[in-house]
Design brief:
about 400 residues; alpha/beta; twelve-stranded parallel sheet; about 25% helix; binds guanosine-5'-diphosphate-alpha-D-mannose
Length: about 400
């Protein structure tokens, strides 16, 4: 048997995702019309002999309750949310629920970060992992040398694929091969985390010998049950014939900011073309709105036939889109209303927001800069004919004059 664990973090982790994380925990923010965490979960379906999926985080349980029960019945695989009482780090969180994870006595454990967007080639990884015969296999990808320092950089043997060297977010360039945050392990991983615990405990005991060190420990050293997968485990185990790499040639992105969620929404919509074409909207502008490229429209949304939608648009539940509206490259969240002839491009429109007639909400579409897209928080009103460009608007604001490159607090 195999189990999968998805690390979903908690409210203190998603701060770069504001103002959208005020309303919804980041893992449940919709990409291509489905919660972010839904994409790795549905990829798990293709793992042979999958017994259970666990989401581990320190968000409130009730925030995940509805999603977890609906996805369990949809997939016919138990999906459970396990709440940590405090953050334990990416490996510490896994260890904290060891007994539950090992309940079915799995031979392999997948571990996935929830905030990555890729094709999750999980069965291929498992096959490669079995061939290599180590304790763990990491999904890796080549990125540009400039962006590599945002991730874990690593060196792998070109023939055996063994992980030879690993440095988390290094200051000086190591390699353009990086850690994708997707792993498969044997249960041996728990012994390794246990060893790190013991090591942290020894260090703590040592420090209590001198009061100076005791203060240092109390203020600087993390709790002994806090274990990071990257620094505490991958780095020391590199080059010991225990960890191997599997390189993906497909797409991969990390989702830390709202702008990246817009980019990843496009990647998942494009994937629907060949994985679940039934989820994509189609329309010719006669009975249904004119649809261009990859578009998701929730069945409860009402879109006027004279509106033109796409590419890369996802429209959530109960949204109303009036006549003559033009939407491209945007995410429109639940209960928003877009009135006649409004225009939205490179933007995220928050829950219950209202765009008046002839309003324009747009960004230039640079996903890497802070104001590259426009973001409206929950219940923002943009009055008729008002233009909002490259701006972030916090919840409950009413805009009656046009703004550009501004953060409206
Ligand atoms: N449950 C739980 N508890 N989850 C956590 C905790 C914790 O204490 N800390 C982090 N996570 C989750 C995050 O939500 C995320 O899904 C994942 O674990 C990794 O988060 P971080 O440890 O903050 O690392 P990162 O996202 O900056 O970088 C990691 O992922 C990159 C790929 O996206 C590193 O492993 C990099 O090397 C890697 O390139």
């Amino acid at each position: 048997k195999v189990v999968a664990v998805i690390m979903v973090g908690g409210p203190t982790k998603g701060t770069r995702f504001r103002p959208l994380s005020f309303n919804t925990p980041k893992p449940l923010f919709p990409l291509a019309g489905q919660p972010m965490v839904h994409h790795p979960i549905s990829a798990c379906k293709s793992i042979p002999n999958l017994a259970q999926i666990f989401l581990i985080g320190f968000h409130e349980e009730r925030e995940f309750a509805l999603y977890v029960s609906s996805i369990s019945s949809e997939l016919k695989i138990p999906v459970r949310y396990l709440k940590e009482d405090k953050p334990h780090g990416s490996a510490g969180g896994l260890y904290y629920f060891k007994d539950l994870i090992m309940e079915d006595n799995p031979s392999h454990i997948f571990l996935l970060n929830c905030d990555v967007c890729c094709s999750f080639p999980l069965p291929e990884m498992l096959d490669a992992h079995k061939r290599y015969g180590g304790m763990g296999t990491l999904l890796v990808i080549k990125v540009s040398a400039e962006s590599a320092s945002e991730f874990g950089e690593l060196v792998a043997d070109s023939v055996t694929k063994e992980l030879l060297h690993y440095t988390e977010k290094p200051e000086t360039f190591v390699s353009d091969l990086i850690n994708c945050g997707v792993y498969v392990f044997t249960p041996e991983i728990f012994n390794v985390i246990q060893d790190i615990h013991t090591h942290h405990e020894d260090r703590a005991n040592l420090h209590t010998l001198s009061s100076y060190d005791a203060i240092r420990f109390a203020t600087k050293t993390p709790a002994k049950d806090f274990v990071r997968l990257d620094q505490d485990i991958l780095s020391p185990l590199a080059g010991k014939k225990q960890l191997y790499t599997y390189e993906t040639m497909d797409f991969w992105e990390q989702i830390k900011t709202p702008a990246m969620s817009l980019k990843c929404s496009a990647l998942y919509l494009a994937q629907f073309r060949y994985k679940s074409p039934g989820l994509l909207a189609s329309g010719d502008g006669i009975k249904n709105p004119m649809v261009v490229g990859d578009v998701y429209i929730h069945p409860s949304a009402k879109v006027h036939p004279t509106a033109k939608i796409g590419p890369n648009v996802s429209i959530s539940a109960n949204v109303r889109v009036a006549a003559g509206v033009r939407l491209m490259s945007c995410i429109i969240l639940d209960d928003a209303e877009i009135q006649e002839n409004a225009f939205v491009m490179n933007a995220i429109v928050g829950w219950k927001s209202l765009l008046g007639k002839w309003a324009r909400v747009q960004g230039e579409g640079d996903y890497k800069t802070k104001l590259g897209i426009t973001i409206l928080g929950e219940a923002v009103t943009v009055e008729d004919e008002v233009v909002v460009v490259n701006s972030i608007v916090l919840p409950n604001k009413i805009l009656n004059i046009s703004v550009q490159e501004e953060i409206i607090l």
